[in-house]
Every structure is written in C-alpha cells, then in structure tokens.
Amino acid sequence: MLKGLVLIGGKSSRMEGLQKAWIDIHGKPQFQYLFNLLSDLQIPAYISCNAKQAPLIPKNFPIIIDSYDSIGPIGGIVSAMEVDNEADWLVVACDLLLINRATFNQLIDEIGTNDDIISFQKKDASFAETTISIYKNSSYKYLKEAIQKKNYGLQAILRNLQTKYLYPINEELLLNVNTRADYNTALDVLQNKKMDT
Question: What is this structure's pTM?
Fold first, then answer.
C-alpha cells in the first residue's frame, strides 16, 4: 500500500522569518496544499512534524511526530516507517512549493518496478531529489541501520540501494525553496507560467 508523507520538520532557518510549511501561495498553507494533492490521488497522507510543531497542526490532519531529533529528512521517513513498515511511502518536503499532481503521478507510475527507492534526478545534476521520492518498504531496514550508524545523508543511501532515477517532466517544479531568493523565484514561476495540475 502506498501512503504519503509531507515533511515539515525543518527549522526554515534561512527563510528570514517565513515558515515554509505555512507559506500560502496556493490559497492555503503549503503543508495543506501538499496533503490535499496526495489525498486527491486517493493516497492516505500524513504530516511529518517535530514535537514542537505538532500542536500547531489542525486536528483534522493525521500527524506522525519525529522519533529522532534534528537529523534531517531521514528521521521523518523512518519515523513513518516505524508506524507502518509494510507501506511504501511517497515523501514530499514542504519546501517544494511548485510540486503538482503530475509530479506525483510520474513517481507513482513507476511503483511496480523492483526498486527500493524511486526518485527524481535533474539531467545536469549529480544528486537526486531525495525529498520527493517513493521509499518502498524494502528500504526500511537500510534507513534504520543508517540512523543507528549516524549516517543521516539520504544521497548515500540512494546510491547504495536499488534506486530508479527519473528525469522530471518539468525541472522547474522541483525548485527547493530554502531562502527568500528561492521564494521569490517560485512566485515568479507561478506568476509567469500556468501551472498544470
């Protein structure tokens, strides 16, 4: 079974006061926008947050609180897998402001392959987009072992497992918004181009 996980546990430290999960450029907070996209695809979705964020999430959104403190996205992913290690998890970070339904569908279309992880990699990039990926249940023990060894980098894990890399249909939609400048770029994309759903 495929489940969805919206990662919001980061500190947004480079956003000069903006909290990425609560940015509203789609008519609703970003965590809700991503949650709704997943739900519209009939994927049971959850918000991955830290303990301090949990009281801020409205009660109608299922949450999974990070079991690991300040170790990055791997902590949220493994926390979800500890709740259900039989599910495959479609993971998306809240700093991907431009993600749309078609982006998710491109990943989902490949779920029948014999891979541990399905991820995007831009054509000229040397790294994968680890926070918009499907982590199959077969990757769970390796992710858990990586945490136990304090190896928190997802890039190395993708290289060591059977990972299927996809070229995104539209690389612009994978913009990671980590600074105010990135945020302004995302706004420009939305204003200048019609975003397909």
Answer: 0.92
